[in-house]
Write a sequence for this structure.
């Protein structure tokens, strides 16, 4: 068959599968059905939790769950305010603190959030602890609501299948989709394409994270102090070019540019939630009231730049 004829279905698929990240306006390609991403990610999450050591520290767990719930609520309210209510059915939030010294956290597609005790310890016990946790969790939720898992799996699938017509492949070869999902989570190959794309996702999730933190009543400036701590604790000698993540200095610089815009657009109200879960719960009610006012002012004009 003529190569031009093979390209026609591909071009049609690209047009159909092209969507927009509402909070940033960036165009993205999602060839893999979201239902398959949610199914695969839930399976991966359940497998992980079977071997994970869930923290038995009730106080620390309550701290993480309180912040995570407020970020999740902010994300849901944002989706409602911007006409994306249909996406809410894809989230079944779950918040866990896992005993692990790594400086890490993640949010799977579908809203399964895990924070490692190493990350909680990095945030410390100071007045800005919850604000820094909000930056971490907001970043991870940002990956989920921007559908980065779906996008990365689509890129991986595109790489795997090369010049094949993708329509039939996506519709009938779920095994390949499962493999693409697995590869999308950190096992990319090509430095020139897949890894820089991952770094773009990380910076986009940083931005969405500070928006969600602000909407939830936290101080977005804490994202900068968090990454300054990460930079100080970093033992990695891997160059930024070879990494799936931007360097701490790159992230700090971009956050310092983005935070004033976020505050101007989404409001500057912050809430100190570092004292107790009860106080934080009361603050959530105040935040919802403030957030409602912000929504009325902004309407659907959430996109910046």
């Amino acid at each position: 068959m003529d190569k031009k004829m093979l390209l026609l279905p591909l071009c049609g698929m690209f047009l159909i599968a092209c969507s927009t990240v509402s909070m940033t306006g960036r165009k993205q390609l999602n060839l893999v059905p979201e239902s398959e991403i949610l199914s695969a990610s839930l399976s991966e999450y359940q497998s992980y939790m079977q071997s994970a050591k869930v923290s038995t520290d009730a106080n620390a767990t309550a701290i993480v769950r309180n912040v995570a719930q407020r970020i999740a609520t902010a994300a849901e309210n944002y989706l409602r305010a911007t006409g994306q209510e249909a996406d809410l059915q894809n989230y079944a939030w779950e918040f866990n603190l896992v005993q692990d010294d790594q400086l890490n956290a993640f949010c799977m597609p579908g809203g399964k959030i895990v924070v490692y005790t190493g990350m909680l310890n990095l945030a410390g016990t100071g007045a800005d602890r919850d604000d820094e946790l909000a930056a971490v969790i907001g970043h991870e939720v940002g990956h989920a609501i921007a559908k980065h898992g779906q996008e990365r799996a689509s890129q991986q699938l595109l790489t795997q299948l090369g010049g094949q017509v993708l329509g039939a492949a996506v519709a009938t070869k779920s095994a390949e989709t499962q493999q693409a999902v697995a590869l999308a989570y950190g096992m990319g190959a090509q430095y020139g394409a897949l890894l820089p794309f991952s770094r773009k996702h990380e910076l986009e999730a940083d931005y969405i994270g500070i928006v969600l933190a602000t909407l939830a009543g936290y101080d977005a400036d804490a994202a900068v102090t968090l990454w300054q701590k990460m930079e100080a604790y970093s033992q990695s000698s891997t160059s930024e070019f070879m990494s799936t993540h931007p360097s701490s200095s790159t992230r700090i610089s971009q956050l310092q540019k983005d935070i004033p815009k976020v505050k101007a657009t989404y409001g500057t109200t912050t809430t100190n939630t570092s004292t107790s879960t009860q106080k934080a719960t009361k603050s959530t009610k105040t935040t919802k009231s403030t957030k409602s006012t912000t929504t009325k002012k902004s309407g659907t004009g959430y996109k910046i730049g």
